[in-house]
Amino acid sequence: MQVSDFNYELPEALIASEPLPNRTDSRLLVLDPDTGGVTDRQFPAIREYLRPGDLLVVNDTRVLPARLYGRKDTGGAIELLLERLTGGNEALAQIRASKTPPIPSRITLEGNLVVEVTGREGEFFRLRFPGDEPLPTLLERHGHMPLPPYIKREDTPADRERYQTVFADRPGAVAAPTAGLHFDASLLAALRDDGVETATLTLHVGAGTFQPIRTETLEDHRMHAEWLSVPASVCAAVARTRARGGRVIAVGTTVVRALESAAQTGALQPFEGETEIFIYPGFEFRVIDGLVTNFHLPGSTLVMLVSALAGRDAILNAYGHAVRERYRFFSYGDAMLILSAAGGERP
Description:
Blueprint: E1 27-31, E2 38-42, E3 55-59, E4 61-63, E5 67-72, E6 77-87, E7 90-97, E8 105-109, E9 113-121, E10 124-128, H1 135-142, H2 159-162, E11 170-173, H3 185-193, E12 197-203, E13 226-230, H4 232-243, E14 248-251, H5 253-261, E15 271-275, E16 290-294, H6 301-310, H7 312-324, E17 335-339
Parallel strand pairs: 1-17, 3-12, 3-14, 4-11, 14-16
Antiparallel strand pairs: 1-2, 5-6, 5-8, 6-7, 7-10, 8-9, 9-10, 12-13, 13-15, 16-17
Helix pairs in contact: 6-7
Organism: Spiribacter curvatus
Pathway: tRNA modification; tRNA-queuosine biosynthesis
InterPro entries: QueA (IPR003699), QueA_dom1 (IPR042118), QueA_dom2 (IPR042119), QueA_sf (IPR036100)
């Protein structure tokens, strides 16, 4: 398959640059993958599509204030975007500057924080931060929220809260698992009252999620690695759901990647480590029955993932409908629910 098979036309005016006043104010496009039919709703109506005994799986990663600004020893301006924390006071980062900094060298960031550039791993630079203070704490003081490149504005204090899910707990991501942004505490409580169970895993979203595919064919593309943890409690929750005839609904593509990575040997098992799983049409899903997701960039690996679940034609038709109906796209945009009427049974 070709990358161009997953493109669609999107007016720039439909890219959401700000969150709505309330998390649940977003719209919900409901797609039945069995028929390709779409229904326009508001997000709280998700309660009508979930049943007692269903399981929602969410990602509790917390976005780090991972964008940093400063100057090189030569005086030139520089921007850092952390990709991941690698332990202690070290991290990998993308560096944007007029000239690549030498190795070794130093960068003075806002607040006179001096960081050492100690090496390189592919497109990323190895950085060492000073002192023994936990790096997430240091970033809270010196960093900026890493809004995606298609949001053409500087981050604001409000983004510190709105570019996090209400269940964000484990710092480590540099991009939000945006499907979770539509849930608030009241909606989650209502779903619990409806008999919908919730389970939590972690996948730290990397900056590579925004990188374009640079190959012509899907089979030649290699995914960026992301760290995840699927605990035994999630595996047990999935087993309980199967036993009672419920459905496993992933909240976001990050949850899909985590669950399906943990099931690649067959049955779902606890897993902690990195994944480079690439899900595109033809993929055999072992765990999930449905998905809550946002609308994704044309030709992106995430459009390919949702096409693997619902079918390319159904997804592109749904996206065309969303454009005509002026849905809001991408991270701060509206949501889609992909869920067949029956729910796909898994062995």
